[in-house]
Amino acid sequence: MRVEGVRGMRDILPEETPLWQSLEAEIREAFAHWGYREIRVPVVERAELFSRGVGEETEVVDKQMYVFPDRKGLELALRPEATAPVVRAYVEHGLHARGDLAKLYYLGPMFRYEKPQLGRQRQFHQYGVEAIGSPDPALDAEVMDLAWHLMERLELGREGLFLRLNSIGCREDRPAYREALRGYFAAHADALCPECQRRLETNPLRILDCKEEGCRALSRDAPRSADHLCPDCRAHFADVEAHLADLGLAHELDPTLVRGLDYYTRTVFELCSRDLGAQDALLGGGRYNGLVELLGGPPTPAVGFAGGMERLVILLSSRSGAGGSVPDLDLYLVPIGNEAKREGAKVLSALRRAGISADTDYMSRSLRKAMQVAGRSARYAAILGPDELARGQIKLKDLASGEETAVGLAQFTADPRAFIR
Ligand code: HAM
User: How far apart are alpha carbons 50 and 315 in whole angstroms?
Assistant: First the structure.
């Protein structure tokens, strides 16, 4: 019986992994250059971490989270995002006690029960940063600069990309804004979807994230968070914009941008691509000055972002020339006959230990077929047959130039690097 994979959870096949690996390497290097260090948090957390941290009323927690009891009945969740887990770890390990800014980054799978489509999956992979410990608006701008820099490194350039920015104010600003939204939407309640009619009572801000056309149309003229900022939040926002200007980062103010997670305060942003269709957000983030305290730590301001790896892969693999066939191996050994095969196993083992990537044929291929495999997969072929064995030699063929040389088997095994460039 064939057992299929789970809808929305893709295999990343060997043809694709080189692109993933080079992306991951670029991302790690960029994050390290900006002063971030990697943190690895579990894939499974207590479900309450997200219901409290991300918010009970959000789509992510309410509709998309994979929740299950463990064998003792503890309610667990597959992480739908990593900000709450990173903050949990920050509080749990007393990282705040060090009194410095904690700059942390992560890469890894996240899980959301969404309707799968291009760029949207149920298991997807995020790269992200969290800078925990400073309220400085320059840090908001630095985080956005890092997001831009990453896209430049990946040669996604600036054309087709745009930065959407908004401020949703602080906790103190929220009640007045919530009331303004409630008043506005209540006057149009008939046009809201049933879900949003309920949100009208519980959390009218979430109506602004609703994907239903009727609700979206109403949201366009809804009261704007930027008009409900206290003087401190207004000043913070002005500073963020000034720092962005200093860094030469263009942005579009988007008063409808509120982001779908409850922890945000002040700055929210998304970096989007005009080439991605409906799922256009390459990455999103913002400030979350209340989350550390909400999860049991001292009041601690923080800012960060996360992006979806799959969306980068879509953009990069649509580019011409992506996934070109560079040989994976340094050398492919072609033994002829049983004796050569046994001798060849020793040669291979020595080569690999010397740091040379090498492989051989285990499919009893003919010489011609084995040479074809070598041509596809390696830079050199090494041919070992009865004649070579009798002379204590091995024949090396440079597969790019076609040049062949016979070299002493003992010297080759002792110092393969002298023969393979
Ligand atoms: P988010 O906007 O929910 O934010 O997700 C960030 C990014 O993850 C999105 O912009 C998108 O690229 C990718 N993404 C989200 N859902 C999916 C999916 N189902 N399939 C493929 N890609 C997806 C957060 O998760 C916040 N934790 C970001 C953050 C960090 N805020 C502050 N710090």
Answer: 30
Ligand 1 mean position to 270 CA, how many Å?
10
Pocket test for ligand 1, best of 164, 283, 294 (most atoms within 8 A of CB): 283
Index of the ligand 1 atom closest to the CA of residue 288: 32
The one-letter amino acid at 219: S
Locate tokens 């704007």: which residue?
A: 224
Distance from residue 51's CA to the centre of ligand 1 (Å):
17
Domains and CATH numbers, the chain: 17-173+229-320 (3.30.930.10), 329-418 (3.40.50.800)
Q: How far is CA 381 from the centre of its chain?
A: 38
Can you tell me which atom of ligand 1 is nearest the CA of 82?
A: 27
**Which residue do the tokens 């596809």 mark?**
376
Residue nearest to atom 14 of ligand 1 (CA): 308
- Look at ligand 1, atom 31, and give the residue with the nearest C-alpha: 285
pLDDT in tens, 211-235: 889 998 999 899 999 999 999 999 9
Q: Is the dihedral of CA 165, 171, 173, 177 positive or negative?
A: positive
Which one, of 50, 61, 35, lies nearest residue 129 by Cα? 35
Residue 66 banded pLDDT, cuts 50, 70, 90 = very high
**Which of 54, 66, 81, 271 has the most ligand 1 atoms within 8 A of CB, as the residue to mutate?**
81
CA distance 30 to 25: 9
pLDDT tens digits for range 375-405: 999 999 999 999 999 999 999 999 999 999 9
